[in-house]
Amino acid sequence: MNILRKKSISEMLAQSHQKGLSRSLGAFDLTLLGIGAIIGTGIFVLTGVVAAEHAGPALILSFIISGLACAFAAFCYAEFASTVPIAGSVYTYTYATLGEVFAFLIGWDLMLEYLLATSAVATGWSAYFQSLIAGFGLHLPAALASAPGTGKGGIINLPAVIIILIITTLLSRGIRESARVNNIMVFIKLAVIILFIVAGIGYVKPDNWTPFMPFGFQGIVAGAATVFFAYIGFDAVATAAEEVKRPQRDLPLGIIWSLAICTALYIIVSLVLTGMVPFSKLNVADPVSFALHFVGQDSIAGLVSVGAITGITTVLLVMLFAQVRISYAMSRDGLLPPVLSKVHERFKTPFKNTWLTGFVAAGIAGFIDLTTLAHLVNMGTLSAFALIAVAVLVLRKTHPDLKRSFKAPFVPVLPVLTVIFCVYLMISLPAITWISFVIWISIGFIIYFLYARRSSNLNK
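That's the Basic amino acid/polyamine antiporter, APA family sequence above. Prediction below.
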């Protein structure tokens, strides 16, 4: 069936050498890009909630379990990204292994994931920003402070709209410039996290770690399922494949190093946080700042709030970047309108695509309450992780002699474990998430058969 037609690996490799996007990123940039995407609401928000409701001081074990699951997927991403260094991440890999219709649907799924993640994170950024300026006695009018339907009298969430448009401006003008800004902000938030560790470690009381597993092992697993989403973002590194100077070498390094550094920081912060404050008191929106206030370090708590805003800003930048690169790759293959893959002559970016995506994300963040829709981000990520594991198995079978700069270890055991873990977590998601996911995928099916199947470059 022509809906299962596949892109040739050799043609993909030839395509990666064509002139288009600017190749200016190295392993260092990619590592910071990954850290920029991963460290945000996970470390500044989720740590407290999971400790209080699920894991207690055993939060550290929840992070280790989730880190291992993400590491399985990271090795699969690293193998594919170094073997087929094409923009589009798992969409491109699926196109080469499972066929066009599956590629379109996972691309469609990822577009929603990154778009909603951008809008949801912008909403969180707005809340932190308003909290920060409130410390200086400044308050936005209620009509401009939140989206309609949140019960706060809002007409538009103006800070969320503005920050997305600022990020869009930056991304549209070049990846090198965007990477520089991301690198600076990543260093700021890493400095703030290290400051918290250094300032807080002296206030750690081992008695706060008892009982260590107040909710039992089941609570640790439930916590792992929740903090799994604190790791979302390292996969976005693979979407930058065509903007990397030495993709075969640098992509695996960027993916694996960013995940390893973030896992280590999550574990250390978890230990210090639950040692400073009894876990039952950590069910707050800003647990890191709360812990510092709890021990009387108010000035450092203020710096942590600034670091949280900086951290969330880098997540915004990488999520929006990844969404644009996915739709760019799909458009170049003929599955979406050609305007989305047009590269600006001066900036060497998908200029129109970037602004279109930015306006849509800003509209969602400004006018829609994302409480229900945000669950789809989790579903989209888990689907992508499972598919990349399957794709590695298929490519090993169909192209055993293909040159691989990096090979995932313990194949086929590692990809199979990745699929099992992701499916288990997907099953644990709420029913409304599955209903929303099925509706979105159904819309994707309709678009594929009405437009993409006929306009596909492979069809021509």
